[in-house]
Design brief:
Blueprint lengths: L1 H12 L1 H18 L1 H25 L7 E2 L9 E2 L2 E2 H22 L6 E3 L2 E3 L6 H4 L2 H22 L11 E2 L11 H24 L9 H25 L3 H22 L10
Antiparallel strand pairs: 1-6, 2-3, 4-5
Helix pairs in contact: 2-3, 2-4, 2-8, 3-4, 3-7, 4-6, 4-8, 6-7, 6-8, 6-9, 8-9
């Protein structure tokens, strides 16, 4: 019962995390269905938790960092790792996956709609589990943390609270580069397992409308990014905020240009 009580306390203490998590579940079910969604969540959550558990004890793969336990009794922990932290990896990885799909899904040969040529995105298993999608997803996953982690490290200046620290702060606004390597490791392991399962599961019925459902996950990525950039500017860190904004702007522009050429109501293919 204590764990259940702490779980509800966690929701009250971290409502923004669970709003993002709910958005992940909704968008993932719409895009890939429930059987793949719960597997994606479980794989990514377990991988992230094991890596966090390891890093706080061995420094692998994120480098050395420690949770200070300042919110013990206020939110749910598993072996000194906050539950809300490990589940964040799941929705961030899925959101990164959606952005990678938006940038890299190949087009079918032009079809004709109302006598006009229309290029339609492919969503078959080969396209959505390609090596290029795999690599770009991992990069975007670690890349968004370059905005999240610096502001989270300053959680004592906003409602996150000071919950962790690095014994040897790094050059990127206090965050060691090993931390971003760790994020890439979580993404590499999680996607390798999930993609392998995706190829073995019952073939996925193409979602319709594909573009609108894909945009839900893309919106989650940029929603999380906007939230963290907003917190960065709010705590009075304009240089850090502008750095994060300018890093992500080229990807947003490329994504907007590419998807603007796709019909929003394209049939599933």
């Amino acid at each position: 019962m204590e764990a259940v009580t702490l779980f509800f306390k966690t929701i009250v203490l971290r409502p923004y995390v669970f709003i993002f998590f709910a958005a992940f579940l909704f968008s993932a079910i719409k895009l890939i269905g429930w059987p793949r969604t719960w597997r994606f969540w479980l794989i990514s959550w377990v991988t992230a938790f094991v890596c966090e558990f390891s890093s706080t004890r061995t420094g692998i793969p994120f480098g050395w960092y420690f949770y200070n336990g300042s919110t013990v009794g206020q939110e749910l922990y598993f072996f000194d790792v906050p539950f809300m932290d490990s589940i964040s990896f799941s929705f961030l990885l899925f959101a990164s996956y959606c952005v990678a799909l938006g940038l890299l899904l190949p087009f079918n040969s032009p079809s004709t709609t109302e006598h006009l040529p229309v290029r339609l995105l492919r969503f078959d298993v080969e396209a959505r589990t390609s090596w290029s999608v795999y690599a770009l997803t991992v990069f975007l996953f670690a890349f968004i943390d370059m905005v999240i982690d610096p502001v989270a490290l300053r959680g004592d200046r906003w409602f996150l609270g000071k919950i962790y620290y690095y014994p040897d702060p790094g050059w990127h606004f206090g965050v060691p580069m090993a931390n971003y390597v760790g994020w890439a490791v979580v993404g590499l392991i999680s996607l390798a397992i999930y993609f392998s399962l995706d190829r073995r599961l019952t073939p996925l019925s193409p979602p319709h409308p594909l573009m609108q459902r894909l945009l839900l996950g893309i919106g989650l990525y940029y929603g999380v990014l906007a939230f963290n950039l907003g917190m960065t500017f709010w705590i009075g860190e304009p240089f850090m905020g502008m750095s994060g904004l300018l890093m992500h702007l080229p990807f947003l522009v490329c994504l907007t240009i590419r998807l603007s050429n796709c019909p929003r109501s394209q049939p599933a293919v």
